[in-house]
Amino acid sequence: MNSEQLRQALRLYLVMGSSNCAGADPYAVLEAAIEGGITMFQFREKGAGALQGQARLELGARLRRLCAQRGVPFIVNDDERLALELEADGIHIGQEDAPAAAMRRRLPGMIVGVSAHDLLEAESALAAGADYLGVGPQYATRTKLDAREVQGPAVIARMRAGGIRLPLVGIGGIDAANAPAVIRAGADGVAVVSAISQARSPKQAAAELLNTIKSIGRNS
Ligand SMILES: Cc1ncc(COP(=O)(O)OP(=O)(O)O)c(N)n1
Ligand SMILES: Cc1ncsc1CCOP(=O)(O)O
Ligand SMILES: [Mg+2]
């Protein structure tokens, strides 16, 4: 996937694990979200109540197959071994995870996404060979209890003004109402958990977010 294709894939990025689905079946939630138009998926089986071991692997394999059937890139959060086992399209790592340069070397051909909270981290991720950045939390989030301070879209504008041209998504507390500010600040797309996975209709929520993003267009 070239950088322009990756920008397109990042437009509406669903990040989700079984504990984010308010009791609903994660397979059904992902299927509905794909019907609504999500363009990328990250398997993030993390936090209280998350599946472990074989159950985690089995759910990951089912979600991976669904993404492959529907042509949606499948990314694994944090776990290099799981990414290899599931033949993922990529991995997403944060500042507290394995170094991006090592992932780049050890997972040839995979997309490597890196979390960045400021211009310095964005520059380091770029130097380490990151393919895209996840920047947040943009707004208050109840999904990630150890999230850093809320940054607001201004952090994305600062990265763009500082010369960061990498494909980039905002994450954290994003919904259809505030997504336009994130895109206008220079993001290629938005990454969301609860706005889709906990919506009454994940399909409708995804479709509404995608329409909103399309109506703004890209700025970077
Ligand atoms: C697209 C995207 N951006 C940021 C993150 C957060 O990653 P990280 O900081 O490693 O935190 P955890 O998700 O691992 O708790 C992400 N997962 N995806
Ligand atoms: C994984 C992650 N990284 C920064 S905020 C966040 C959680 C975003 O979840 P939500 O979209 O429900 O606020
Ligand atoms: Mg992580």
Annotation keywords:
42% helix; binds magnesium ion; TIM Barrel; binds 4-methyl-5-hydroxyethylthiazole phosphate; single chain; binds the ligand Cc1ncc(COP(=O)(O)OP(=O)(O)O)c(N)n1; 220 residues; 16% strand; 10 helices; 8 strands
Describe the model.
This protein is of the alpha/beta class. It has a single domain, classed as Alpha-Beta Barrel (TIM Barrel). It is built from ten helices and eight strands. It has an eight-stranded parallel beta barrel with strand order 1-2-3-4-5-6-7-8, surrounded by six helices. Helix 2 links the parallel strand 1 and strand 2. Helix 2 packs parallel to helix 3 and helix 2 packs parallel to helix 10. The protein is globular, with a radius of gyration of 16 Å. The two termini are 19 Å apart. 46% of the residues are buried. The mean pLDDT is 96.
How helical, in percent, are the residues?
Answer: 40-55%
Look at the structure and name the CATH superfamily: Aldolase class I
Uncertain parts: none
Which term fits the overall shape?
globular
Please tell me the total number of domains.
1
Instruction: Write the CATH architecture name.
Output: Alpha-Beta Barrel
User: Element order, helices and strands?
Assistant: HEHEHEHEHEHEHEHEHH
Summarize the structure in short.
The chain has 220 residues and is of the alpha/beta class.
